[in-house]
Structures are given as structure tokens and as C-alpha cells.
Design brief:
Strand content: under 5%
Helix content: 55-70%
Structural class: mainly alpha
Number of strands: 2
Largest sheet: 2 strands, antiparallel
Length: 124
């Protein structure tokens, strides 16, 4: 986690105790947010794939951060989202997101995997 000072400059320190404490607090909130889902999975005697667990965790983080930003915006008296995020910000993020995208040819995606395995819909 990175902390910034009031002017927006990153606070750099190898041992940033405030950042560590904030991160611990956030992790506790995330655990609490995910607890009912994890209990439901355990009670059902099931398991979920690691990738789906990571997606759930990521979604929980995103939901928590969205709520934090919303609460801060309300406290600061923000009335319009454009006060916080400009069209230039959206364009920059759009470029960044596009650069992370990897497109796979449909035929390529349906070919057997490296060990000759097929996808879940195409059983051997």
C-alpha cells in the first residue's frame, strides 16, 4: 500500500507503520466481507477453484474501496463525479486497461491445451 501526503506526493519509507496498520485494518474488513461466502462454501462441503477465489477477493477489495471513496466524497461535499474523475482520467485509464487485454483467437481458444486437454464444455 502506498500513502501520499496532502500535496499528493508519495510517502516513501521502508518501514511505514501507518501503511502497515491501514493494510491490516483493510484485510480485517475484507475477511469479514468474505466470511459468509467462505462459510457457505465450507457448509456445502464444496470447494471453489483458486482463480474464482482470487476473483472473489479482488471483487471484495474493489467493493470496499468503492464504498470508502463514496463515503469520502460525501463527507467532502462532492456533488458531481467529474469533480473527482475527469474525462482525461477516463481516457488514460481506458488506455491502461486496453494495454492489459490479451485477445485469443476463437479457434485458438477451442484447441486442446498443452497436455491435450479440452475445455470444460468439450469433454474427452
Amino acid at each position: 500500500m502506498k500513502l501520499v501526503d496532502p500535496s499528493g506526493k508519495e510517502v516513501t519509507s521502508k518501514e511505514n507503520k501507518e501503511a502497515g496498520q491501514l493494510e491490516q485494518q483493510l484485510n480485517k474488513k475484507i475477511e469479514k466481507l468474505l466470511e459468509p461466502i467462505m462459510n457457505k462454501i465450507k457448509l456445502a462441503g464444496g470447494q471453489i477453484p483458486q482463480q474464482q477465489l482470487m476473483q472473489l477477493s479482488s471483487a471484495a477489495h474493489q467493493m470496499l474501496f468503492n464504498r470508502m471513496v463514496y463515503n469520502l466524497a460525501i463527507k467532502a461535499g462532492v456533488e458531481d463525479i467529474s469533480e473527482l474523475v475527469s474525462d482525461d482520467d477516463v481516457d488514460e485509464l481506458q488506455t491502461s486497461l486496453s494495454n492489459q487485454l490479451q485477445i485469443v483467437d476463437q479457434q485458438e481458444g477451442q484447441q486442446p491445451g498443452p497436455q491435450g486437454q479440452k475445455g470444460p464444455d468439450n469433454k474427452k
